[in-house]
Amino acid sequence: MARLVMKFGGTSVADIDCIRNVARHVKREVDAGHQVAVVVSAMSGVTDQLVAWCREGAALHDAREYDAVVSSGEQVTAGLLAIVLEGIGINARSWQGWQLPILTSNAHGAARILDVNGAELLKRFKERQEVAVIAGFQGMHKETGRITTLGRGGSDTSAVAVAAAIQAERCDIYTDVDGVYTTDPRVVPRARRLSKIAFEEMLELASLGAKVMQVRSVELAMVHNVRIFVRSSFEKPEDIDPHGTPPGTLICGEEEIVEQQVVTGIAFSKDEAQISIRRVQDKPGVAAAIFGPLAEANINVDMIVQNVSADGATTDLTFTVPDADYQRAIDVLAKSRAAIGYERLDGQSDVAKISVIGIGMRSHAGVAAQAFKALAERGINIRAITTSEIKFSILIDEAYTELAVRTLHSLYGLDKV
Ligand code: ADP
Ligand code: ASP
Ligand code: MG
């Protein structure tokens, strides 16, 4: 007997038929003798609709009310799955974030989980063999008692937090792909499924654009050492061999991975904008004058490139911000023009960031250089580069995103054979 968390994303609970399919997956694990906590997302498209209604209601709305609205999608699916499970003879009870409770910080819309109370769930596993169906994506602020949400894609994080709280053996993430691939399989059909990926690599992949797992869920899994298995919910429950290993990807500690490739995966993000400050004064304190006000405005600055000054007096400085913050960043910099001292601002939002990730890069030199050559041969211009221990990222024109990803995917031998 094992204790499991099973998480089902939006496309896996898209309608009642899908929910019936989910219920059969749950039954399969219950029949095998396991104690099961299920975490569900809202039906696909529902959260988008709820967010749109909030914006329509008022462009600038109270984040507490945003959370009251957008958390409702998960309430529906949790209740429905409990109904369907009971209908096929399985004891089940639904739980919303405030009922367990799942306590969070006060950052409405992007709250952090502080504590999950799993005691009642454990008691019910034991006494009634009851399946817990938990609404993902939501929690309750520790002090005010108000409903919070965890940021888009947050049900992954709910699932990992529940798994840590009930000391589950594994956290299974059921989604619309059968694992984590070398890159988004929708963009590169030749992408290959990884049988295992290290937490650090998954963290980079997720934070650099691969939305298969929410970034915070991977952070949390790393801290609590929760093993995550990403697999498909579209596999027929009846076809699964209870003794075999289903297709999927295990996200685990580095030490569990025997065959380490130099490059594990490629992520990309079109959600980038580039800003260049031309002929900015080259003197101490300028970087603070630029990035201080941006930080105060809560704008995340990512890639930064500063040229060495040719005349000793002025230089150009280029950096990226999220697309959504582009206009705000330009406004902040225009306001601080006197304090910074520059000639003009240039910017564009049709840029993309491509990132190449692999733990093997720690011990291999020249990995990035190969990429620069391959992209140059395709006529793709590189606007900025950043590197760190296990990844490098390049900024290019958005129109070349797919070509660049495919080129690098082949270059590093990741294509399916
Ligand atoms: P869910 O609704 O189940 O949470 P998501 O849409 O959030 O599912 O995440 C699954 C999607 O992530 C896939 O459909 C796929 O297009 C995308 N994706 C991006 N990068 C990858 C990758 N490297 N491997 C697998 N899927 C990826
Ligand atoms: N329903 C939420 C969203 O669409 C949370 C999730 O699906 O993980 O972002
Ligand atoms: Mg998701």
Description of the molecule:
By secondary structure, the protein is α/β, with parallel strands linked by helices. It is built from 13 helices and 18 strands. It has helices at residues 16-31, 46-57, 63-70, 72-87, 119-128, 155-165, 199-207, 215-224, 286-296, 326-335, 337-340, 367-377, 401-411; strands spanning 3-8, 35-40, 92-95, 102-104, 113-116, 131-135, 138-141, 147-149, 170-175, 196-198, 228-232, 249-252, 265-281, 304-306, 314-322, 344-357, 384-388, 391-397. The strands form three sheets. The protein has an eight-stranded mixed beta sheet with strand order 3-6-2-1-9-11-12-10, sandwiched between helices. Strands 14-15-13-16-18-17 form a six-stranded antiparallel beta sheet. Residues 9-10, 41-42, 47, 73, 136-137, 152-156 line the site of aspartic acid.
What's the alpha carbon Rg, rounded to whole Å?
Answer: 23 Å
| Span of the ends, CA to CA | 38 Å
The largest β sheet comes out as:
8 strands, mixed
Strand content: 25-35%
How many strand segments? 18
Mean pLDDT: 95
**Helix/sheet category:** alpha/beta
Count helical runs: 13
Strand line-up of the largest beta sheet: 3-6-2-1-9-11-12-10
Q: Helical content, roughly?
A: 25-40%
Shape field: globular
- Low-pLDDT regions: none
Ligands bound, unique: adenosine-5'-diphosphate, aspartic acid, magnesium ion
